[in-house]
Design brief:
Largest sheet: 11 strands, mixed
Strand content: 15-25%
Mean pLDDT: 82
Bound molecules: zinc ion
Distance between the termini: 26 Å
Low-confidence stretches: 1-71
Radius of gyration: 21 Å
Helix content: 10-25%
Length: 394
């Protein structure tokens, strides 16, 4: 794919000291809230739950210098290979059902010039209706797991990850699929959430912007999981561009029609976006508000690791709503309330997610950040047809 690493970002906190122009090679941020990062320093901060944190956008070690030029545009290759994963977690049934449907009736996801391949990512887990068999498939797409030089008994999901990497990757190569849409359900009250992994990927930010506008007035939040202390190696990370589509609330092993319908709409708009892009539509530069992960917060626990408190009723189902200093987070069975003691308002998400009890996570703290993307257009113009503009798309 194209040169999407040469993007330009403009990041604004919600209570900024001013607009933050970020050069990713130097990362000199004057962050006004949430996390204070020393300028030009890879400062580690002790988070509220004892998690060592780097700033979510401190990627000093990666990527070329970025030019601050919002007028710049990116010309990218057309999208040819798209995969839609369901059943990365076998008990998240909206994606399982949709992918099984599309495997038999693919007309709904057919677009000219694109191979759109529905795929059950963890078939054994789907068969048993469990999240995973041996280990979480959505955490094992690191280079060590994907290498073939392991000995001894290999966990099922590692074998499956290697198979997926050979079918849709190899990860990081020019042969990798252009886009993977990875379908998930959450037990949290998150609505139709788009999960973004790369704040410099113009194409994917533009796709999120298109989906958000298409879903309006329904809130379609974007969760950025780029924080090095929280980021994990997802199944979809083998593609050049990827979005996790996380829709809830829905219990594990259950299908709700409203949740399935929302997921289906997001997939439709994602494919529509790619189709418009391939047809030569010029997408002007845009900005989107994202919720950037700061840290995960565990439940209070006793000295043998059992929960000593649960999510407070005033936080339950309040994903994306502000959590202010002094607000209750947890309550013990004898009524003791634990309040949020941070300095700044944060926005919790994945509140009381069933799958995250094993991951010692009660919820994730995020902060609102604005990401900007350059204008993009595909290189496949030349048919004689004038390109559409975004205004003709909506
Ligand atoms: Zn999942």
């Amino acid at each position: 794919m194209g040169d999407y690493d040469n993007s330009t970002m403009r990041i604004r906190g919600k209570k900024p000291t001013g607009t933050q122009m970020v050069r990713a090679d130097k990362v000199r941020m004057r962050w006004s809230r949430g996390v204070k990062t020393r300028r030009g320093h890879h400062g580690m901060k002790k988070g509220g739950a004892g998690v060592d944190l780097r700033h979510p956008f401190d990627r000093t070690a990666a990527g070329p210098p970025l030019a601050v030029n919002m007028a710049a545009s990116s010309t990218l290759s057309a999208i040819h290979k798209v995969a839609i994963f369901g059943g990365t977690h076998g008990n998240e049934l909206s994606g399982v059902l949709l992918v099984k449907h599309w495997l038999k009736h693919g007309g709904e996801i057919t677009k000219p010039g694109m191979e759109v391949r529905p795929f059950i990512a963890n078939p054994k887990a789907v068969e048993k209706c469990v999240r995973y068999i041996d280990t979480d498939l959505n955490r094992v797409f690191d280079s060590e797991s994907l290498s073939n030089d392991r000995t001894g008994k290999i966990p099922y999901e590692i074998t499956q990850a290697q198979k997926i990497n050979s079918l849709f990757g190899p990860k990081g190569s020019k042969d990798a699929y252009d886009v993977i849409l990875d379908l998930h359900n959450t037990t949290a009250h998150m609505g139709a959430t788009l999960i973004l992994e790369n704040s410099r990927d113009n194409f994917t930010i533009q796709m999120c912007n298109y989906i958000q506008k298409s879903m309006a007035p329904e809130h379609c939040p974007v969760l950025l999981i780029e924080h090095p202390g929280v980021k994990y190696t997802t199944t979809r990370s083998i593609a050049k561009h990827s979005i996790g589509i996380e829709v809830g609330p829905q219990p594990q092993g259950v299908i709700r029609a409203d949740i399935l319908h929302k997921m289906r709409k997001v997939v439709k708009y994602a494919l529509d976006f790619m189709n418009h892009f391939n047809e030569g539509t010029a997408f002007p530069s845009c900005s989107i508000e994202v919720y950037s992960v700061l840290e995960k917060i565990d439940y209070p626990r006793n000295n043998i690791g059992d929960l000593s408190a649960i999510i407070h009723p005033s936080l339950q189902d309040q994903d994306w709503k502000p959590l202010n200093p002094g607000d209750p987070m947890f309550i013990s069975l004898d009524g003791k309330v634990t309040c949020y003691e941070g300095e700044n308002t944060v926005y919790p998400t994945f509140v009381n997610e069933a799958a995250y009890y094993e991951k010692t996570q009660a919820f994730a703290k995020t902060e609102k950040v604005t990401l900007s993307a350059q204008s993009i257009q595909s290189v496949t113009l030349g048919s004689g047809e004038p390109p559409a503009s975004l205004s003709t798309v909506f």
